[in-house]
Amino acid sequence: MLLAFFKWCEASWIGKGISGSVYLFPVVEATHLLALAVIGGAVLIVDMRLAGLGLKKTSAAEVAREAEPWLIGSLLIMLVSGFMLMCSEAMRCYYNGAFWLKMYSLFFAVIFTFTIRRRVAAAATASGTTAKAILVAVISVLLWSGVGLGGRGIGFY
Amino acid sequence: MLFQFMQWLEATPASVAFHESIWSFPIVESIHVLGLCLFLGMAVLTDLRLMGLVFRRVPLSEVMGHVLPWTWAGAVIMVVSGMVLFLNTPVRYYTNIFLRVKFCMLFLAVINAWVFHSGIYRKIARWDRTIPTPTYAKIAGAVSLLMWGGVVVAGRMIAYNWFDKR
What we know:
The complex is a heterodimer of chains A (157) and B (166).
Chain A: H1 2-11, H2 13-19, H3 24-50, H4 60-88, H5 90-94, H6 97-123, H7 131-156
Helix pairs in contact in A: 2-4, 3-4, 3-7, 4-6, 6-7
Chain B: H1 2-11, H2 13-20, H3 24-50, H4 60-86, H5 90-95, H6 97-118, H7 135-157
Helix pairs in contact in B: 3-4, 3-7, 6-7
């Protein structure tokens, strides 16, 4: 099932187009990295606030609300550029442990971010922080770090 | 002169050991990439605030005061890990066009930040809450975003040997 999908990706015009070009992969990869800077900021500023660091005078709810459009926007760019990169070497990714570490981390990071973390941040109106908020921040940073480490690992695996 | 220094650096035990190790490069490179999230993430948010695009209700001085220490922490991670990465193949990096472009952009980004902090930021009390932000603040933010973006793109391109002399 999954194997067929990866084969289809590699044979698609996106996959063929990128792997057949000298410059397209680096260009898409660079776009992926630029969006990484934005998503890194959008994730970290909220987690830092949940942990009582960073923008301390602003409530976690407001920090999360302000960061959300940037989080969603950069996540979309990451997903689209990431999918294009995957297509260009789909079979290599299929047999790549780091790629799957990244996919599992991404799956759980996205679900965690838009369910539990979103709710905890929205409810945290007080100026301080709670043990629960700190725990949420730590889990979020660990999950997203897994995505980053797995992603960098694809090239080394 | 500098080229001879790179040749000497490449022959040092530290450089040889780093180059020969299987794990050191991936580990330090991963630290460099995660550090990018912290350093550039904070820098991007600061720049976006300068342009009046995020945290509009938070005074700029407060964003600066709370975010800048983290930007500095990220910068230290980036510079230290970057210098260790450089040990991998000093001669190749020194002659790599993208590394030179990266350093030029880096220089311009730092100059831009310095001009901003020693100039208009000193009169922050006058426009701390002003939205839309003054034009000069928007320019400082946009120039910063462009320069740091250039640093990232040029940095990633160091991996490619399109223009390497062989």
